[in-house]
Design goal:
Blueprint: H1 5-11, E1 15-19, H2 23-32, E2 39-43, H3 46-55, E3 60-64, H4 72-81, E4 90-94, H5 99-108, E5 112-115, H6 120-159
Parallel strand pairs: 1-2, 1-3, 3-4, 4-5
Helix pairs in contact: 3-4, 4-5
Length: about 160
Amino acid sequence: MKQTQAEKEQEKMPTVLVVDDNQQNLELLQAYLEDVDCQTTPAHDGPEALKIIAKSPPDLILLDVMMPKMSGFEVCKRIKNDPQTSDIPVIMVTALNEFGDIERGIDSGTDDFLSKPVNKLELITRVKTMLKLKHLTDKLERTLAYLSEVEKQAQTIKSN
């Protein structure tokens, strides 16, 4: 039996974009994510991350806050303000723990926070949860689009 395009997309392994200017942190996060059924893509700064997102939107973004060129707050704001990418969940990974920093993260649109040093179990749990949520959101959107199409067809049949 032939697979439909929607079924093929459902089986596609989710991708996680890991953004951190520190190579050791990047490698550590990617190593931790080996226990999750996903592909990881590294980015070393905000502009590189935005290029990757524009070319091939990931299912989840792990985003360092303190980076040169462009802060994680700015990157997150750009992602969330773009209708093409606003549904991508973003987890900010930060050593910052002041309330003002958390408030800035929320204002920029982040979906969750992880504190450095990152706890492997916490990272895996949050990533799995966010990927499951993204999968269900995507499935709901596909179902709603399908129902809308069925409704249009029914209207066309009714008016003929």
